[in-house]
Amino acid sequence: MQKIPATVVTGFLGAGKTTLIRHMLDNANGRRIALIINEFGDLGVDGDILKGCGDETCSEDDIFELSNGCICCTVAEDFIPTMEALLARPDAPDHIVIETSGLALPQPLVRAFQWPQIATRVTVDGVVTVVDGKAVSEGRFAANLAAVDAQRRADDNLDHETPLSELFADQVNAADMIVVNKTDLLDEGEADALVARLSGEARAGVQVVRTAMGVLPIEVMLGQGAAAEANMDGRDELHHHHHDDDDHDDDHDHHHDHDHDDFETFVVERGEIADPATFAEQVAGVIRQHDILRLKGFAAVAGKPMRLTLQAVGPRVDTYYDQPFGTAPRATRLVVIGQAGLDHAAIAAALSA
Ligand SMILES: Nc1nc2c(ncn2[C@@H]2O[C@H](COP(=O)(O)OP(=O)(O)OP(=O)(O)O)[C@@H](O)[C@H]2O)c(=O)[nH]1
């Protein structure tokens, strides 16, 4: 029996994973693609966006949402049972695409494909790492040398970098292909420099391609034939497990105590907003003031039957009307994601003002 290829799409919060997958679904040309989506933050925004595709290639039945935390830490409880349920269905998909949360380490997920009940049926076609070209060019994932030094002074055993730079390095390290997205926000020189830098940091032979709005031909994205689960060499994660005493344990059920302890998420609910542009400015102000990494959700706009989708990556805020509320409650709900220590009350108050 031929194995079903599975593509793992990883990349930091807001890099453009959902956008890339949405574009792929819109251009699936009759391929049946099953999606497994893992989101950090409990609003199901990505699932909603992908279900809105309305195409028979991505019926809701083919979308599985894993929302019990980060996929790399819930492999046994969540991911494996979901894969088994997917594989037990009579109509096997042509391809499986897995969107990890922006905080996930891809390595534990790829290793899960070595589990016997999966390995006989599915192979990892490729790990696609989506990079926010603008954020990386601005140095958002650069190791913060001052912070690293302070940590080292505090604890000799620590040789890790910042949570952001570590995650970024691990996601790059796991890649079979790197997609430098958001090139529309870069000039050509910046894009060239970033591609050159990432080609140097990635494993040998990894292709680095550039996109805007995730426009990548489906033939480039799928069908890489990497069999990543059988080729783990050089994909190792960095030094994440310093809190665990048993971290050399290769037990598959082992819980990786890693960087998402350094991040947190919560939901803010408020009443209708008056005007999308004004609210977007207000949101951008709150993001700057509180150093929020990612904010997304849906808003009810006074007098408008359509639901407004709001997406912010750092202080860049996008809004668009996506669908009528219909019978759904006209609620405004926003999920906020940042490094641990966010002032929930102040942020909620500022977003509700
Ligand atoms: N300017 C610009 N914006 C983009 C591009 N790709 C995605 N975006 C926007 O960036 C925001 C985040 O995109 P998503 O596709 O949701 O990112 P993601 O990686 O799935 O985000 P998480 O699931 O939260 O980790 C959205 O507002 C997108 O419209 C791009 O190439 N250029």
Automatic annotation (TrEMBL):
Disordered as annotated region, ranges: 237-259
Tell me the ranges covered by the CobW C-terminal domain, including all copies.
263-352
Q: Which domain of life is it from?
A: Bacteria
**Entry GO CC:** cytoplasm
Please list the residue ranges annotated as the CobW/HypB/UreG nucleotide-binding domain.
Answer: 5-207
Report the InterPro entries cross-referenced here: CobW, CobW-likC_sf, CobW-like_C, CobW/HypB/UreG_nucleotide-bd, P-loop_NTPase, Zinc-reg_GTPase_activator
Substrates-to-products reaction catalysed: GTP + H2O = GDP + phosphate + H(+)
Q: Which keywords has UniProt assigned to this entry?
A: Chaperone, Hydrolase, Nucleotide-binding
Set out the biological process GO terms recorded for this chain's protein.
cobalamin biosynthetic process
Query: Has keyword Hydrolase?
Result: yes
Q: Where are the transmembrane segments?
A: none
Q: Which terms in the Gene Ontology molecular function aspect does this entry carry?
A: hydrolase activity; nucleotide binding
> Record's CDD domains?
CobW-like
Return the Gene3D superfamilies for the record.
Answer: CobW-like, C-terminal domain, P-loop containing nucleotide triphosphate hydrolases
Per the entry, what this protein does is: Zinc chaperone that directly transfers zinc cofactor to target proteins, thereby activating them. Zinc is transferred from the CXCC motif in the GTPase domain to the zinc binding site in target proteins in a process requiring GTP hydrolysis.
The cross-references to NCBIfam families, in alphabetical order and at most eight, read: CobW
Q: Name the PANTHER family for this protein.
A: COBW DOMAIN-CONTAINING PROTEIN, COBW-RELATED
The UniProt entry's sequence similarity note says: Belongs to the SIMIBI class G3E GTPase family. ZNG1 subfamily.
Recorded protein name is: Cobalamin biosynthesis protein CobW
Which taxonomic lineage does the organism of this UniProt entry have?
Bacteria, Pseudomonadati, Pseudomonadota, Alphaproteobacteria, Rhodobacterales
**Quick one: which gene encodes this?**
cobW
